[in-house]
Amino acid sequence: MAAHLLSAPSLKSNPAKTPSLSWRPSLPSSFAPLPLPRRAAARSVVVLAVDAKPTVLVAEKLGAAGLDLLKTFANVDCSYDLTQEELCTKISLCDALIVRSGTKVSREVFESSGGRLKVVGRAGVGIDNVDLSAATEHGCLVVNAPTANTVAAAEHGIALLTAMARNVAQADASVKAGKWQRNKYVGVSLVGKTLAIMGFGKVGSEVARRAKGLGMHVVAHDPYAPADRAHAIGVDLVSFEEAISTADFISLHMPLTPATSKILNDESFAKMKKGVRIVNVARGGVIDEDALVRALDAGTVAQAALDVFTEEPPAKDSKLILHENVTATPHLGASTTEAQEGVAIEIAEAVVGALKGELAATAVNAPMVPAEVLSELAPFVVVAEKLGRLAVQLVAGGSGVKSVKVTYASARAPDDLDTRLLRAMIIKGLIEPISSAFVNLVNADFTAKQRGLRITEERILLDGSPENPLEYIQVQIANVESKFASAISETGEVKVEGRVKDGKPHLTRVGSFNVDVSLEGSLILCRQVDQPGMIGKVGSILGSENVNVSFMSVGRIAPRKHAVMAIGVDEEPEKETLKKIGDIPAIEEFVFLKL
Ligand SMILES: NC(=O)c1ccc[n+]([C@@H]2O[C@H](COP(=O)([O-])OP(=O)(O)OC[C@H]3O[C@@H](n4cnc5c(N)ncnc54)[C@H](O)[C@@H]3O)[C@@H](O)[C@H]2O)c1
Ligand SMILES: O=C(O)[C@H](O)COP(=O)(O)O
Predict the structure, then answer these.
(1) Phi, psi for 375 (deg, rounded to 5)
(2) Which residues 6+ apart lie within 8 Å of 298 measured at CB?
(3) Which stretches within 410-533 are classed as H helix?
(4) Which residue in 7, 8, 435, 463 has a CA-CA distance of 20 to 30 Å to 358?
(5) Is 331 one of the annotated active-site residues of the chain?
């Protein structure tokens, strides 16, 4: 599935002219990384220059097909069982890291990467072993492989359920120990019993389907699952209390989050039917393991079958593991040949796609951005970043940029226009010229917040055809002074507006002056008294200094009154040249801005 979603746009074909998807600060476009918006299933990412072969560190065993795929694109370093220290040392030489659940990708790992690590690929579902906040803060994309092991995990859940009910593991050990204890290992039947599925997502619903086939009555608790999806397979969604208090069997399938941590604890065990049986193929941390031992000792819980543990591997003398009513497996839920091949391909595709700058369908810390949305927004992405860059350069030193209003004018209904990518690019444009920060779609909002930059977005709904996603974008910075007074609008903000014309980004308004200048190269803005010959005077100064003018436009309030002249230049003029322009008597103020 990921393959289709990753076969994205042609954006990387000309990095100098298109929005760079790379997160690598040294791309020729000069504005590094970034990525994208939403709608169905794709998200963003990015990479490395075409010239360098990236290095991917595979820190846990990965299926051969996935490794082969990685090797077609990258140098692959398979180093297993690294200590945290070794991982931190190696990571500064890697562009991507692939792990399963056995590697902790801690903040320290991101800090040790020196900014080189662009993608972490989790070859599986659970990302609780990856410090997502640290990844986001470091602009590192995290992708996972959420679908390929679903059936394997569900099958393992059913295997544990049936094995537990019939004491398969204990009886097997007993027979191997030379015993024949038929009375001791009398089991319980599943048919007609109530199974509560806690977490009705991909794995939970597959377990439910299979349990229905075994003749069980299945209920589920999941605050976020749609009831009709449950009804479609004959499952009722019930409250947490109802689920745990009516079940003969409880099977856990929620992610480990602060909300689900130790969700089964002394209090919840006390509410369960005496003799309940529990299966956990989700994460060990969703059960308070000490409380489970107490519940097993008290007989409240008759049996537990566990694939996952708070600490993996668990201590050898763990009371839980050694409990005679516990069946344990070493986190084998995803471990089928088929699932591991599938996961390896799924993650390799996601990581390679990300490194190439394509969309990632399974990004966990960046908004989803389908390819078609990206391609239609691409020219506006350039406008957005350049407006941000212009606006911040117009602010007078010492003003402090705190509050930015972005207005999108469009004939599209608000829910049909995803502006996250544009917002990210405006933030990038606002922050990068005045700091050493490296901003991309992953860390844009975080970086803005960290700097106390408040971005508000507004929509102007236009009449007309919604074919064009946007008519124009306005960026306004409030409560600041400008080094070019004419950039201050009637309402007192630094204001710039841009739109796409013939596929090219154009600046169309500065303050209250309409202009029309292509946003390429650099820009000189002059306020002058409108009079004949001004264009010629400025043009000849620039020409005599060998500065090529790419575009010129004059916006005026009325003939012979004030006007703003916008001049696009290919080269950066010398200070002396700019001074000569400023010395033209009719020029009241001017500013040079780098795009
Ligand atoms: N043992 C293994 O090898 C193995 C294999 C695959 C998945 N897993 C684990 O299984 C779990 C489920 O995986 P999935 O692919 O089905 O994920 P999923 O995201 O498709 O489903 C998780 C479901 O849990 C629900 N949920 C979230 N908070 C909840 C709460 N407080 N109470 C009840 N439900 C809640 C979500 O709404 C979602 O529907 C994850 O923890 C995953 O890491 C383990
Ligand atoms: O979250 C998952 O995908 C499973 O727990 C599998 O983990 P693993 O990749 O370590 O087997």
Answers:
(1) -70, -35
(2) none
(3) 420-431, 444-450
(4) 435
(5) yes
